[in-house]
Amino acid sequence: MDMNQYLEVFIEESREHLQNVNDQLMRFEKNTDDPGYVNEIFRSAHTLKGMSATMGFDDLAQLTHKMENVLDAVRNHQLDVHTEVLDALFESVDALEIMVQSISEGGDGQLDVKLLVQKLQRIVAEEPVAQHAASSIEYDELVQTLLSQTSDQGFNAFEITVQLERTCLLKAARAYMVFDVLEQAGDVIKSAPTVQDIEQEKFESSFIVILVTNESQEKLQASIMEVSEVESVKIAAVPVKKETEMEGLVSPEVAAAIQEVTVSEPSKSPVEEKRQPSNNKTIRVNIDRLDSLMNLFEELVIDRGRLEQISKELNNSELDETVERMSRISGDLQTIILNMRMVPVETVFNRFPRMVRQLSKDLGKQIELQIVGADTELDRTVIDEIGDPLVHLLRNAVDHGIEMPQARLKNGKNEKGTIRLKAYHSGNHVFIDLEDDGAGINREKVLQKALDRGIIDGKTAETLTDKQVYELIFASGFSTAEQISDVSGRGVGLDVVKNTIESLGGSVTIDSNEGYGSRFSIQLPLTLSIISALLVQMSEERYALPLSSIIETAIVQPKEVMHVHGQKVIDFRGAIIPLLDLKELFTVPNSVQGDHYSVVIVKKGEKTAGLIVDSFIGQQEIVLKSLGHYLPSVFAISGATILGDGQVALIIDCNALIK
Known about the structure:
The protein is α+β, with helices and mostly antiparallel strands. It contains 23 helices and 22 strands. The protein has a 6-stranded mixed sheet. Strands 6-8-9-11-10 form a 5-stranded mixed sheet, with helices on one face. A hairpin with a 2-residue loop joins strand 16 and strand 17 (575-581).
């Protein structure tokens, strides 16, 4: 059997189960009296063990098997929960994640887990967990009556004892295979342990089944022994009383039960759990297929723009009506496709509680991470990029933000610090706020570090506002850590955050109150593939400006333009903002200055600027295309788009223009 066809599903489902184990362990650590968390963890670990063994990843199966022993001892109240138990389980999850990652990268998923397995074994002291023995089976009134009826019809009844190998990891799976063989030969009347206990592996290594069949003992023996990891099979004929001998001995309740069994549909495997049909049907789709669908739709958007332009030129009413209807339908299709690509930020957030727990332990701090709005959705392309920036911000908050417990108590705070991670929609953007109730940012300390590292000079330092000082921590190589550690202090981190967020068309701002905490606010576009833009003309060239960066457009007379330190500026609603002539910046040929300035007012966080263009063309939905490997870093150009007439328009990165 070729397992490669199932590999992708195995990796995806393994990650889901590991994330569930992580989440439930975090909750269980806070409330060890709730057995529901342990049962949920056990189910995920048990499923992962079965999948791993089936796929042939023995290290994965072995480690999850040992985890099961610990979890089973906990839920059966045979083991007290303490820090060593939780740490060992968390460490096991780390190892499992490493193995699954290895498999996803084409590796064999092997990892030396001997020491970890030994640690888990020591925790349960290798005491066998209480199991249901399968040494005898009860022939109650109902079973006897059923056997007598089938005997009168010419069937044989056998008591079958199946012994699995002691080293068998997938006992429930092997039992299922045995039941499958038996049901092809006849009907299973009863088992010991019960079917539910066998499903949950609550038996040592053997079980007993009563089977009614026409098959011979020899054939049954041979069929069962063909199942892997079956050590032995014992089959004995069951002496059955005739139905006439049972008359007068059957109670009304048993008679009713017999009638119910007789008229019921043919039974399925007793190991299979009966589930109610679900109305919510889902299907897993490879992300590459969604990317291909998106690429095709992007071409459709380009052709839609071309048709709209042709329609305007021809001025044909029927064509106008058809194009309008096609535009409306394609707009709905665009919404559906974009929604298909939307992923909740939970897929990024769900790894942070575990990370904060470990960091706080390493630093000797007490920290609670609160997550709000984890169901907020973003385009998958954006989701893939924001993980690392958020990790940097969280590590910064844990290390620099939250104080040591003694310092917090001295300042009248709760010894446990709080970090709040919140995501929410606003217009065509998603905002992610990371707020802590720690020490805040020390203005003087930041300024001094910036001066020492030559990031600013003394004259500039005197003119900076608080927010401008806070933004200095985004400078490359900046760090206020007194010593280098595994958490921070190596002079890298927050500059990466700023660069990554801005490369996504977003922005990050800081607000802080010394002694009370800080807040980092990230603004991100909902999607990067199809955006609304303002098309502008410069000489014979056209450019696109993302609407998300635009405040408004304006016509400015030459007399309104002032010069400050050689820079053109204008008074915009009471604020002096710089004017940037895009024709000069991009060296547009044949540029001629008219009798007025057409200006696009754009923003980047709290900063504003005016961009001078020749004229405004209008708003349009455009497809963002990369410039490719040949033009990887063109100043202030984030990509290109193809217009309806086939001309290429460059997309301006407004964030790069505003310093």
